[in-house]
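Hi R.,

Here's the chain you asked about this morning:
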Amino acid sequence: MPFFVSIFLLTPIFLIIDLYSIDILRNDYSGLSSVASAVFNKTEETKIDNSNKTVIDTTSKIILMFGDSMVDGVRDAFKKYCKFNNHKFYYYTWNSSTTSAWANSNKLKTLIEKYKPDFVFIMLGSNELFTTDLAKREKYINDIISQLNDIEYVWIGPPNWKEDNGLNSTIEKVTGENRFFPSKNIFLVPPLKYKRSGDKKHPNSDAYKAWTDSIANWVMTNGKYPIKLEKPIE
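And here is the predicted structure, written out as tokens:
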């Protein structure tokens, strides 16, 4: 399936950004607007130096996404990705939840027993972004990962609206670079820096779509477990 980029200007301040393009995978941004290029340049910084060609797992997966309120922002876009790529998709939102809450709860165990996922997306960190008790957070993160029982996963980092006190680095240290998507790399700079909802913390609808596209592209090209997440044809 050919990759392509289409950018439609809807208003002076809102853009829908399609994040798949063979040019992007070749690091060629010449055909993109400055806005789209800014997002991709930051996404590229998360890439891992890997001389081997990425082999994408094209088998159907049972995917579970769980976490805080950020799940509700990306779930609809992820549903489309999963349907297009023949995956089953389940999600669970625990509003205002933290790594501590999930580590000290049986919710994750219950979800795994119910849905039996073979791939998991974790979206946690936004509600503890400025914490300084990083040693405790590291323990909670380890506890959450241990509950997965070797299920393949990606931890999607919070969409920082300000610099944190080391939470992102702590998550990345525990999970490993190729299992952690550092969302702050694209949210602390324009254009996504300014694409926020009324509380100035949650992304707006356009940013949620761009975020989902960036995650899907990263999983296929740089993740430890590259599963098929091709861009749905609208």
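One quick note: Residues 1-37, 45-51 have pLDDT under 50 and may be disordered.

Cheers,
M.
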